[in-house]
Structures are given as C-alpha cells and as structure tokens.
Amino acid sequence: MNSLTNLVDFSQSTFWLAVASILFNPTFWNFAARSEYHNKTLTKLAGGNALYGCYGLAATIFILGIVRDAIYERALRNQPTHPLLLGFVPNALAAALVLSGNVLVLSSMWALGITGTYLGDYFGILMDEIVTGFPFNVTGSPMYWGSTMSFAGTALWFGKPAGFVLTGVVFVAYSIALRFEDPFTAEIYKKRDRENSKKAK
Ligand SMILES: *[C@@H]1O[C@H](CO)[C@@H](O)[C@H](O)[C@H]1NC(C)=O
Asked: What Gene3D superfamilies has UniProt attached to this entry (predicted)?
C-alpha cells in the first residue's frame, strides 16, 4: 500500500523535468569550465577577457539555478503530500534545513567571491590561498551540501516524499561533480605552486 509509487507520482512530466534540470546543471558547468581550461572557449566568447568570461559563466550558472529551483517547486506541487511530513515539527525542521543550507551557500560565496565561487580557477583566475575558515571548516563543499540541504528542506516544507527522491538525485549529481572537480582544481593549484617555486629559484 505504502510503496514508493504511492508516495511519488512518477507519471508527472514535471518530476522528470526536475530530474533533467538537476542533472543538466553540474554537467553543463563542468563541460563549460573544462572547455575554457583547454581551449579558452569562454574567454574567446568574451572578447579575450577571462574575467568577463568568468562573469558570463557565473551569470549563466546563477540563472540555470533559478530555473531549476522553479522547476523543482512546480514538480513538488504536482506530487502527493504525505500527512506524516506535515505539522509543526516537520515545518520547523524544514525551515532549519533551508536556513542552514542558505547560510552555507551564502557564506561560501562571501568567502570565495564571484570568481572563486564560479570556477574562476579554470580561467586562470586563482585564489591567493585556500580558504579554510567558516564555512570551509564545516564542509569542504559548502555550496554543494548547502544547496542539497535546501532541496531537502523544501521537500519537507511542502510535505512531499517526491522531493526527497529529487534531493537524492541532487546528492548523486553533486557527488559525481565533486569527483570530477576536486582533483582537477587541486591539479590547477599544484601547477601554479610548481611554477611559483621555479620562479623563486
Ligand atoms: C569554524 O570557524 C568558525 C569561525 O572561524 C568558528 O566559529 C566555528 O566554531 C568553526 N567550526 C568548526 C566546526 O570548527
């Protein structure tokens, strides 16, 4: 009776649109950033200015995020609500999740700046040093895990089991993205350190 298909309406096209949008975003920015790193694609598009290229990518990623969030909310509206997820305690927990998720995301942006947040390393715009203070002493990827917490909080806020399935898709998508991004950016910084130590000699 209470199988997953009762809790989640997989026949809704908005559900699958949300899945597609969740998977598309990190795939898009990883392809765009690698293409920039190898061929300076976005810098060329920005008339040879790497900073403008990075700002263009930042704006695109930001807008894609807003579109995805809107699709997610609309998908949730078309899904069944579970009574156990409604009431004061779930609502309070939902608010706490969204709030702390947003604290992680916004404090990360504040600490990294626009180019640090939006893949500036791939444009050759490197941070002077690795940021280790809050929120990076809580998690190495506050943008990703903060965003995942907001997805879970929104699912709980509306009392939608489907939202937790979609949050699982977000979690998997970001975990895969991190396995691509973390070693790649680490290599970019190692390369700079090697070049700097050569210069120092
Ligand atoms: C992280 O750093 C902040 C401020 O620098 C500090 O208040 C907080 O306790 C630290 N958190 C952890 C888990 O170390």
From this structure: 1.20.120.1630
